Task: structure prediction
Amino acid sequence: MLRKKLKSLRVKYKVTPLTGVEQLPRPNQKKRVITDELKNVRAIVSEICGLAPYEKKAVDLIKRDQERKCRRFLKKRLGSLKRSRSKFDQLAELAKEWIKLF
Result:
């Protein structure tokens, strides 16, 4: 009962929608641009920190030619198929480099 009275007392302003003006995208809808500086920072961090334990296991699975198992493992760890595909490609290139070295 009290809520209805308060609701009727609230001032409601008439708002005209914007027409002819493009609305700017919200920050969460913008695709993040990967600059050269960001690439360099990520490369340095990956060199210093090395691989996470799950990434080491994934590389080991790739070396043993268990790619399907590796993809399922990455999907479970990362949460989505899109992320797991990109991570698999990244780790597969890394594994090829390691195989060439040894």
Observations:
- The chain is about 65% helix and 0% strand.
- The helical segments are 2-9, 36-49, 53-63, 67-78, 81-101.
